[in-house]
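Hey,
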Amino acid sequence: MSVDLSLPRIIIIEGLKRKASDAGTFIDEYLFDIIVRDSDPNMAVEKYLKGAQQLIEQAEE
């Protein structure tokens, strides 16, 4: 089952910026934390390490 949802983009982005700022982080880190928060701890660590590896690779380029 799929659901199409249309929300004003500005409202979403501003809300994410505010929540990330309140958490003392950036939007990408905030979203990543949300994604792995409810995961199995082992899977969360794997996702976090993969994300960190991608950031390192991007920094090296």
